[in-house]
Write a structure and sequence with these properties.
This protein is 58% helix and 18% strand. It has 3 helices and 5 strands, in the order H-H-E-E-E-E-E-H.
C-alpha cells in the first residue's frame, strides 16, 4: 500500500520544466541584466509590457506578456521570438521580483529619511520649547524683581 501511495504522489507531482538551450541562454542574459543596478526596469501593467534597459551595455529587453514574446536589442541586432507561456511567466517572475526588491529599497530609504527628518524636527521643537521656557522664567524673575517695593 505504501508503494501505491508513493506512486500516486509521483503521478500528481509537477515535473520541473526543462528549457531549451536558447531559453536558458535568454533567461541567463535577463537575470544578469537584473543584477546590474544600472539596468532600468519599466513596467506597463495594463499593456502587459515589461522593459529592461541598460544604456552602458547598449542592451534592451522587451517582454510582451500577453503574446509571450521577448525582444532582445543591442546596437547591431534586434530579435523578437515567441516563447512558451511557462518560460515567459518564469522570466516575468524574475523581473517582477527584482522590481519589487528595488521598490522596497527605495521605500526603506524614503522611510528612513522621513524618520530622520521627524527626529530632527522633534529635537528642534524640544530645544525651542526649552529656550522659550528659559525666556519665560527669566522674564518672570525680572518681573518679580522689578515689582518689589521698598518700604521705610
Amino acid at each position: 500500500m505504501k508503494h501505491l501511495n508513493f506512486f500516486m504522489f509521483n503521478l500528481f507531482r509537477k515535473k520541473p520544466k526543462v528549457y531549451s538551450k536558447i531559453e536558458n541562454h535568454i533567461f541567463g542574459i535577463i537575470t544578469e541584466l537584473l543584477k546590474v543596478s544600472s539596468t532600468d526596469i519599466n513596467v506597463d501593467e495594463l499593456g502587459g509590457k515589461y522593459y529592461l534597459s541598460n544604456e552602458e551595455q547598449h542592451f534592451k529587453v522587451t517582454i510582451l506578456s500577453n503574446d509571450y514574446v521577448i525582444r532582445l536589442t543591442n546596437t547591431r541586432d534586434s530579435v523578437a521570438e515567441k516563447y512558451d507561456k511557462i518560460f515567459v511567466e518564469h522570466v516575468l517572475k524574475a523581473v517582477k521580483e527584482e522590481k519589487h526588491r528595488r521598490m522596497e529599497l527605495v521605500y526603506d530609504s524614503i522611510t528612513n529619511s522621513i524618520e530622520k527628518m521627524a527626529e530632527r524636527l522633534h529635537n528642534t521643537l524640544i530645544e525651542s520649547n526649552e529656550q522659550e521656557s528659559q525666556k519665560v522664567r527669566h522674564l518672570e524673575t525680572k518681573h518679580v524683581k522689578n515689582n518689589k517695593k521698598v518700604s521705610f
